[in-house]
Design goal:
The complex is a heterodimer of chains A (328) and B (259).
Chain A lengths: L6 H23 L1 H4 L10 H13 L2 H11 L9 H22 L8 H4 L6 H27 L3 H31 L17 H27 L6 H28 L2 H6 L5 H22 L2 H4 L2 H25 L2
Chain B lengths: L2 E6 L8 H9 L6 H5 L10 E5 L2 E5 L8 H5 L5 E3 L5 E3 L9 H5 L6 E2 L8 E2 L5 H5 L5 H5 L5 E5 H14 L19 E4 L19 H8 L2 H43 L1
Parallel strand pairs in B: 1-9
Antiparallel strand pairs in B: 1-8, 2-3, 4-5, 6-7
Classes of the chains: A mainly alpha (328), B alpha+beta (259).
Chain lengths: 328, 259
């Protein structure tokens, strides 16, 4: 195989070089020199984007395996494998990013032996560790088939259902727990985002984003790998996405009203950039995709589905960054 | 019985001897520059803030039920029975959740080190264990920082409030804040003016997360049974449909044969 340097390969090589430089600075000089973190702002983009958004974007794995293996929606089966693969890659990336963000990355195994069951972080650490293993096992049949390891394949097929159940439970726990992390700071997190319902919001939005990411990835791979677009499948996902967004939207607005936050917002009680980013989040994650998906014509067209999915993904990325950065 | 500190801002003269004693005790550099720094950091665990002729000491409050200890995944932060909240460096993996969770923003990080630690006042836990007062209380020339039993210091603070009506803000900071702290404070100016958070809950903060976390042991088996049940129903349906289709086919085959 000959290596041909194309424009995008140049861009990627440039990114790699930048990352290599950042790695050297990070590990030689410490977090202070390589990031803009300080005592007032100890968690930055590595937590806000890589962990909070990364885990959320990989939620398609548990959503799709549950739909196909537990709820027996066989029509969705063709897209389970690519979704599990992207979820697995997503979680591996989260773990890699953590190696950069932790002050002492070589102690990442400490939660295995030093336990504090009162800590949400302890629970997240265990869940992410176990779920990454579950994803590896769920993905393993593809590798085993390639190398014709029949006996191992048989074992995996036997334990697949308990494995899927375990994966769904672990995902439910840590997707919601990423919201629970912030429950202990009622005085720090802005009232626009602090809510006792944070765990529920994080869980529901993870399902929405899991579906949206699956639509997005299927559309992309249809376009770039010349695969046939599985339109009926994506339409089905779009319908479920609409329902999940409705449930999330009702709960979210109800919670904002109940805590008197919307009233404050309209009174102009909050800073300009907070109000703006909050409204941006609501428009991207809820208003725009709901308006699109509500029309059957749009919901059934590849372009409409793709647009709605991209909006949902961007909207909830905004949400996670608002919780972890704007609101802190 | 747990030990505590009572800081009375009206007795403080801003001499910063507590700052110096703290630095010496913790083997940190202390000079004019450090003395001039008006905030806690990885090399300054306590700071005397000045506003005109008013002073306020800031340090780790050593909470009764500390958020930092509750959130630490590896139990590196721990509340001791004697009062101090201590930090075990060898456990810490540097996730910095303690820094985010602390309502007073106390734990600080060694941002410029390749192998950083969290740094904070640990209420001289070794000295306290040896029956001695904290270094800052020992160094204080006016008695503004006083070391003693928490229960007795509370009584004394209440007495001072009673004996001097109008002198103090009528509040012992740390008595009920986030479930109480091992540092109690009296002042003649509102505490918020020196950056101490007002309106903290009376409940310990760890309750907020534990309320959710404590449900997990129930959630796991329940979730498993529910998902297993859904799997059983959806697949049973399929089996039944297949069996019914087969029966129907057989019936029709028999009918056809009879004819």
């Amino acid at each position: 195989m000959k290596f041909r340097l194309t424009f995008w390969k140049m861009v990627l090589l440039g990114l790699l070089a930048g990352a290599a430089y950042a790695t050297v600075v990070r590990f030689a000089l410490g977090l202070g020199h390589s990031t803009n973190l300080n005592d007032q702002f100890p968690w930055g983009l590595w937590i806000g984007f890589d962990v909070l958004c990364g885990v959320m974007l990989a939620a398609g794995g548990f959503t799709l395996t549950a739909a196909v293996h537990i709820f027996n929606l066989q029509r969705l089966r063709p897209i389970v494998r690519p979704t599990v693969l992207t979820a697995f890659l997503g979680y591996v990336l989260v773990c890699v990013a953590l190696m950069f963000d932790l002050g002492r990355p070589y102690r990442i195994w400490h939660p295995l032996v030093m336990r504090n069951p009162h800590s949400v972080m302890f629970e997240v650490a265990w869940c992410v560790m176990l779920y990454t293993s579950v994803l590896a096992l769920e993905f393993s049949p593809i590798v085993l088939e390639r190398f014709r390891l029949e006996r191992l394949l048989k074992i995996i097929r036997k334990v697949l259902i308990p494995l899927v159940v375990l994966g769904v439970i672990l995902s439910t726990l840590h997707q919601s727990s990423l919201g629970t992390l912030y429950l202990i700071m009622p005085n720090k997190l802005h009232p626009l985002w602090y809510s006792p319902l944070l765990p529920l919001f994080f869980f529901l939005s993870a399902i929405a984003v899991g579906l949206a990411m699956t639509i997005f990835e299927s559309s992309m791979s249809a376009k770039h790998f010349g695969r046939q677009l599985e339109l009926p499948i994506l339409q089905e996902l779009g319908r479920v996405l609409l329902v999940v967004l409705c449930v999330y939207g009702i709960l979210r607005i109800e919670d904002l009203l109940h805590r008197g936050v919307l009233q404050q917002l309209f009174r102009g009680a909050y800073a300009h950039y907070e109000t703006l980013l909050f409204l941006l989040e609501l428009v991207l994650a809820l208003a725009a995709p709901l308006a699109l998906l509500a029309f059957r014509r749009v919901r059934n067209s590849p372009g409409g589905l793709y647009l709605a999915a991209v909006l949902v993904v961007l909207g909830f990325i905004t949400n996670r960054l608002n919780v972890s950065i704007t609101g802190m | 019985m747990s030990k505590a500190l009572l800081y009375d801002a009206t007795l403080c003269i801003g001499c910063k001897q507590c700052e110096q004693a703290c630095a010496e005790k913790n083997q940190l550099p202390y000079n004019e520059t450090v003395a001039g720094e008006e905030r806690q950091s990885d090399h300054k665990f306590t700071v005397v803030l000045t506003k005109g002729d008013k002073f306020m000491r800031r340090m780790c409050m050593n909470c009764q039920d500390p958020a930092c200890a509750s959130v630490c995944p590896v139990g590196a932060m721990r509340k001791t029975a004697a009062g101090p909240v201590i930090y075990e460096e060898s456990r810490c993996m540097g996730c910095r959740y303690c820094m985010v969770a602390c309502p007073f923003g106390v734990p600080k990080y060694e941002w410029s080190k390749a192998l950083p630690r969290v740094q904070k006042c640990t209420m001289c836990s070794d000295r306290v264990a040896a029956g001695k007062p904290t270094a800052c209380a020992e160094a204080c020339p006016t008695g503004a920082t006083k070391f003693g039993e928490r229960a007795e210091l509370i009584k004394e603070a209440e007495q001072r409030l009673r004996d001097n009506p109008g002198k103090y803000v009528n509040h012992i900071y740390g008595l009920t804040e986030v479930g109480g702290t091992s540092v109690l404070m009296l002042s003649s100016v509102p505490f918020e003016e020196f950056g101490l958070p007002a309106e903290l809950t009376r409940d310990p903060l760890p309750l907020l997360t534990y309320r959710v976390l404590s449900r997990i042991p129930d959630f796991v088996p329940l979730g498993g049974i529910m998902l297993g049940g859904v799997w059983w129903i959806t697949h049973r349906r399929e089996e039944v449909a297949a069996a019914e289709a087969k029966e129907k086919a057989e019936k029709e085959a028999r009918k056809a044969r009879k004819k």
